[in-house]
Design goal:
Two copies of one chain form a homodimer. Chain A is α/β, with parallel strands linked by helices. Chain A contains eight helices and six strands, in the order αααββαβαβαβαβα. Helices cover 41% and strands 12% of the residues of chain A.
């Protein structure tokens, strides 16, 4: 693309570094900002810079937090002996939305993925093992996505915990509520038959 | 969405002000920035702010430019008596990419659209009329999009120029090069038959 302005070109180039945003979309977004009041761009620019510079992660669970210990970990009504292991903060938000979980989280920050150069050392696995070693965790729920990377990470964590006194569980896989059986893939349907639950007991919380 | 951090919430809210970017996408983009080196966010933030604060528009054609007169208007090899009227800078970039036009541009900054509250006074139509009044323009090419708003704007400009000594033309509409006739809509096909050109004369530049 041939820009008539170096400033415009810079902004478009930086914007198009974001995932899923190509040069054309970046140009559309930047031109939109130019048509809006200057204050909008200033607020966007400031909020991104401030987030990146001042962001904190909870010392306990590695969730994003403005305080040293996040609201969830600081809540005395939540069960700290029940820990749910997730990939990132979006999973925390998704599970929190269900209001079905009253334990703590442990945010790994990703999955083991040799293809992307992410090894166990790049994730918060060591602090998880430390936490378990202290003996304060009763149950660890693995809630990673069921991809090859997720399975690898699950297995790695499981191996690290061998011999430790902790119950390791994983979230139930099965047909989604409201889904038709005939359209389900065979792996999911197979698992949901294998891991069938007593009738009417399915809504019992752990 | 329930954010654990006010900083994160601010950034996501500002990001989701952009067109076509919802809260979920905004969260994905912002979390991506958090995983990248801090310098990337600083550069993005700075380039947007700088663009918005220091942006200049060419005094002659209203194109985005870092200088008072844009490169196109300042180029002595281009024909200033031939002016192409476009909606915004993206159209200038598109036409420049064809290398088929050696005249000047006039960027309106939009189309007349009562639905969006955009009247003739919000566009750079007065400066266009001024330019024509001076008598230095031989031909005016209307290259707005062929929507109702585009047609309205074309007609408004045409009316403003009544009695002035200037040839007003519009870009050719027809079947795109490489397109199959059977899939073309009837309006386009009809126009391309009405405005047929002599064989082999179609590549002649104006």
């Amino acid at each position: 693309m041939d820009f008539s302005s170096k400033l415009l070109e810079n902004a478009v180039n930086e914007m198009s570094q974001l995932p899923g945003i190509g040069k054309r979309t970046a140009l559309r977004l930047v031109l939109h900002l130019l048509r809006q009041p200057e204050s909008q761009t200033v607020r966007l620019s400031h909020s991104l810079k401030q987030l990146r510079e001042e962001i904190n992660f909870c010392k306990n669970c590695h969730n994003i937090s403005d305080t040293e210990i996040c609201e969830i970990c600081a809540n005395p009504n939540r069960d700290e002996a029940l820990v749910c292991v997730v990939e990132d903060i979006r999973d925390v938000m998704a599970i929190e939305n269900t209001s079905q979980f009253q334990g703590h989280y442990h945010v790994l920050g990703g999955k083991i993925s040799p293809m992307d150069g992410i090894g166990p050392g790049d994730l918060h696995i060591d602090t998880l093992v430390e936490k378990i070693k202290k003996g304060s965790v009763r149950e660890l729920i693995l809630a990673l996505s069921s991809t090859m990377e997720g399975d690898t990470t699950n297995f790695y964590i499981f191996k690290q915990l061998e011999g430790k006194e902790v119950l390791v569980t994983t979230i139930a896989r099965g047909i989604a509520v409201g889904d038709e059986l005939e359209y389900a893939d065979e792996v999911t349907l197979g698992r949901s038959i294998l891991h069938r639950v007593p009738f009417e007991g399915s809504l019992k919380s752990s």
